[in-house]
Design a protein that fits this description.
single chain, alpha+beta, seven-stranded mixed sheet, 17 strands
């Protein structure tokens, strides 16, 4: 469906949001405009589901303050690695364990240090390889909120192998509540190509983290270009910014505070991420059955 204010409009019945993304932004905007001529439906935010299923999910690490705090918490290391400044590093996470807005998140059975991660993801609207930054910028379809749920105790142990996060990360990623097309966020673009959006995360209605997306060390265009280098990106691919600073996750605060303060997430805690221009993404952990 297409959302306009407090109303929603049906897409053609044979067309999913994923199909719309693969058609590219220009064609999608044409179809969306046509949909607005149909009957309006009152928007029920509680009925929103996973916006679409991306073919792959890359998660980057682009906020310097997040790296500094989490390294202290997870690896007991100080500072930011010199290599971090070379390129916008990423890992692939599980595209089969995705959750939409308001969905319960099954926590790993042995996890005792569950955490959230406040992020913004860019959705690609075309395929490509070895893209320039200008080509990468033109490939953007839109943006959505991402919560990269993290089992910090599992992550800390497995990272000692030196390969990267696996079971500490692959159990759940929330995205939504919708995809906001790139044209809608053009007013938030800075002269250097960053999106300047206010980002806040609450746990049980208590503010835990606050940052601006423009504090990313790299732009989304640079991230896309790097991902496509000597490789392939596809329309629909989701590339997440990585966690903001300013308390964008609990582990950053644990590293700075020297203790698990605030405490890890418990079953039933409600995590709400609010991003200017993108809406709110809510999720709550539950025990795995």
């Amino acid at each position: 469906m297409v959302v306009d204010g407090d109303s929603a409009y049906q897409l053609p019945s044979a067309l999913s949001v994923g199909d719309l993304v693969r058609l590219g932004l220009d064609r999608a905007l044409e179809i969306g405009t046509d949909a607005l001529s149909g009957p309006a439906i009152e928007l029920d935010a509680s009925a929103l589901v996973l916006p679409y299923k991306p073919p792959s999910v890359r998660d980057f690490v682009t906020f310097e303050s997040h790296v500094e705090g989490v390294r202290k918490s997870i690896d007991d290391a100080v500072g930011v690695p010199e290599a971090w400044y070379d390129n916008p590093t990423f890992y692939f996470t599980n595209p089969h364990a995705l959750y939409g807005p308001g969905e319960a998140i099954p926590r790993p059975a042995t996890c005792r240090a569950l955490d959230f991660e406040m992020e913004v993801g860019v959705v690609l609207g075309r395929d490509g390889s070895d893209l320039t930054e200008d080509e990468a910028r033109d490939a953007v379809f839109g943006y959505t909120i991402v919560n990269d749920w993290s089992a910090r105790d599992l992550q800390s142990r497995e990272m000692k192998v030196g390969l990267g996060p696996a079971k500490g990360k692959d159990f759940a990623t929330s995205i939504g509540p919708w995809i906001v097309t790139a044209d809608e966020l053009a007013p938030y673009l800075t002269d250097d190509g960053h999106l300047d959006l206010d980002c806040r995360v609450h746990v049980n209605d208590e503010l835990v983290g606050h940052d601006r997306l423009s504090h990313m060390h790299w732009t989304f265009a640079q991230m896309i270009a790097y991902a496509s280098r000597d490789s392939v990106v596809l329309a629909g691919d989701l590339l997440a910014s990585g966690t903001t600073g300013g308390g964008g996750c609990l582990a950053e605060l644990w590293g700075r505070n020297g203790s698990q303060t605030p405490p890890p997430l418990e079953d039933g805690d409600v995590v709400r991420i609010d991003v200017e221009g993108l809406g709110s993404l809510v999720g709550s952990p539950v025990a795995r059955r």
